[in-house]
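User: Design a sequence. Structure:
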């Protein structure tokens, strides 16, 4: 039955993509992030559903004149594509081409569908629907994990969909924390009271799911995320008691094993896992210093340390050199800086309050990624680059709306006969 349900969902997605290409972008996000086929037990687990959907969206885009827009003019677009090109360069110079090339193909499969977001999401309403689909895709899994955590007294680790990029407890916790600001963004933008109540209930359950993962990296990401959410909260008098209640409940109900694991952050010298990561980071840094331009290429850890990098920063540096690290960091922190500045453009305009909502929550999501990436090799996550491109569209729509407002409010020059004397010819004729 589950396999049949997945096939029905896929056929429905194909129909939507053929009806309107921009709906195909939402379908790709749904299947790419929720991974519904991983919950089946039979033939649908091995079907190339995402590939088929991508081809359908591409055909729909090429054969339809609807929903198209040119790629926005933004500095992040050429940086993103240059980073992608740089991956190709480092692959050619990789320490082991036979391992690096398949990884480049996999990463390219992640990046290629993202272009449809730039080409087809041409209105703010469509952008909201895309964000809502992403938030719901992760939110459904995280709420399920949160209910399981509460029901079992946080005695088990929550995990993501098996076989996905965030199937492990650490990865699932970080992606859940990244999704929480997107859920809050939807909560701020919708007006339906019942949906608001659903989303308000979802947020604490998502936090519970992240906590139950017993991920130390998630705790670090949470320490970064929660203050940001509080700072950007419009009702701090409600947010502060909610945080206080959450802390009290956590101290009371979390098992001793959870506290023992989190305590190893302070006593990392005594933890073999932590010391192993530090050793890997030293090896990666040493290799990057010896090969500063192109690094070792994809999967260089197999030869350099024989252990996973356990840090996206070291991964980007050791595999793609200082050039790749700079490009990668500029996309993340440059976007966060852009999102910080963007609300100032619409300050004092009530009709454009959406700009601050989008900018602050997207920044919080990227901040959670930046913190979680300190201890996880998640450099090539599609969600990261999707959020960066979504931020590009937020800026584009904000600037377009500001320009339209200025055009409407600009004074109209007076013409002869309407309060202005007619122009007279000069003496020169």
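Assistant: Done.
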């Amino acid at each position: 039955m589950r396999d049949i349900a997945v096939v029905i969902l896929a056929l429905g997605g194909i129909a939507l993509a053929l009806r309107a290409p921009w709906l195909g972008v939402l379908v790709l996000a749904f299947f790419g992030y929720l991974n519904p086929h991983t919950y089946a037990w039979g033939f649908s687990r091995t079907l190339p559903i995402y590939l088929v959907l991508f081809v359908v969206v591409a055909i729909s885009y090429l054969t339809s004149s609807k929903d198209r827009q040119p790629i926005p003019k933004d500095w992040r677009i050429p940086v993103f594509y240059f980073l992608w090109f740089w991956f190709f360069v480092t692959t050619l110079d990789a320490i082991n081409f036979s391992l690096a090339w398949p990884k480049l193909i996999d990463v390219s499969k992640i990046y290629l569908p993202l272009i449809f977001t730039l080409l087809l999401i041409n209105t703010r309403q469509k952008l909201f629907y895309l964000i809502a689909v992403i938030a719901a895709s992760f939110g459904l899994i995280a709420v399920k994990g949160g209910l399981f955590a509460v029901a079992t007294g946080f005695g088990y680790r929550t995990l993501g969909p098996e076989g996905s990029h965030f199937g492990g407890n650490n990865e699932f916790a970080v992606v859940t924390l990244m999704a929480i600001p997107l859920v809050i963004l939807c909560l701020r933008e919708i007006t339906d009271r019942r949906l608001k109540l659903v989303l308000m209930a979802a947020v604490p359950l998502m936090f519970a799911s992240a906590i139950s993962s017993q991920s130390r990296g998630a705790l670090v990401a949470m320490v970064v995320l929660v203050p940001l959410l509080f700072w950007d909260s419009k009702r701090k008098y409600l947010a502060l008691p909610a945080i206080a209640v959450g802390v009290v409940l956590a101290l009371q109900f979390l098992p001793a094993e959870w506290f023992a694991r989190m305590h190893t952050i302070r006593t990392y010298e005594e933890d073999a896992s932590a010391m192993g990561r530090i050793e890997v980071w030293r090896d990666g840094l040493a290799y990057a210093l010896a090969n500063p331009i192109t690094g070792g290429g994809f999967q260089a850890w197999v030869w350099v340390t024989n252990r996973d990098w356990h840090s996206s920063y070291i991964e980007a540096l050791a595999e793609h050199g200082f050039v790749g690290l700079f490009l990668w960091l500029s996309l993340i922190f440059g976007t966060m800086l852009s999102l910080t500045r963007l609300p100032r453009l619409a300050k004092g305009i009530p009709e454009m309050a959406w700009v601050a909502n989008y900018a602050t929550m997207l920044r919080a999501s990227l901040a959670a990624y930046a913190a979680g990436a300190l201890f996880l090799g998640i450099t090539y996550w599609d969600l990261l680059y999707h959020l960066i491109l979504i931020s590009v569209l937020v800026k584009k729509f904000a600037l377009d709306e500001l320009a339209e407002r200025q055009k409407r409010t600009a004074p109209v020059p007076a013409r002869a006969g309407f309060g202005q004397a007619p122009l007279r010819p000069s003496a020169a004729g």
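The chain is about 70% helix and 0% strand. The chain has one domain: 2-402.
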